[in-house]
Design brief:
Blueprint lengths: L1 H6 L2 H21 L4 H17 L11 H21 L16 H19 L3 H12 L4 H8 L3 H18 L5
Length: about 170
């Protein structure tokens, strides 16, 4: 792993791949994944290990621990993604069906939400927008922003509390 990290050594990576791929696949299959899903996970995990090799620190973790943690995180992300409710297909209303009061109410609520979002600190607003408007998972936000997961979760929680307070009259 050191050779992969320091010299981007493809031969060393091939050895890592050959060693960990069957083990990662077996781990994924044991947790209930289909064989094809497990193979996809293995590919993603080892690709992530290649891309993020610079983040590997042998003083903080062994190679196996680091790679298995990446695999575990990826599996958790997949489970969360599968459990997200799929939105129902929306029927577009006919132009004549739109009630002017509904349109006006929606515009007012939208402007109130924009105003409430503007009261958040920029740090909170960015992660709340990525999580709820961008529909990114916490891990995806971490990958985009480089922030630790705990920081992301705290900013979202604090931002949502602030929004609840700002929008309480809409309830």
């Amino acid at each position: 792993m050191i050779a992969v990290r320091d010299q981007r050594d493809k031969t060393a990576f091939a050895q890592l791949f050959d060693f960990y791929a069957p083990r990662l696949k077996a781990m994924a299959v044991r947790t209930g994944m289909r064989s094809d899903e497990a193979e996809d996970i293995v590919q993603e995990v080892l690709l992530t290990a290649w891309r993020k090799a610079a983040q590997f620190d042998p003083e903080r973790a062994q190679v196996s621990s680091w790679i298995y943690q990446i695999a575990r995180n990826r599996q958790v992300d997949l489970v969360r993604k599968e459990r997200r409710p799929v939105p129902e297909e929306l029927k577009l209303p006919d132009a004549d069906d739109e009630d002017a009061n509904q349109v006006l109410g929606l515009e007012q609520e939208t402007s109130q939400l924009k105003a409430a979002l503007s009261t958040l600190s920029e740090d909170q607003r960015i992660v709340v927008e990525k999580a709820y408007l961008g529909e990114l998972s916490h891990s995806e936000i971490r990958d985009v922003t480089g922030l630790p997961l705990g920081t992301i979760k705290s900013r979202i929680r604090l931002g949502l509390e602030r929004l609840r307070h700002e929008l309480k009259e809409l309830r």
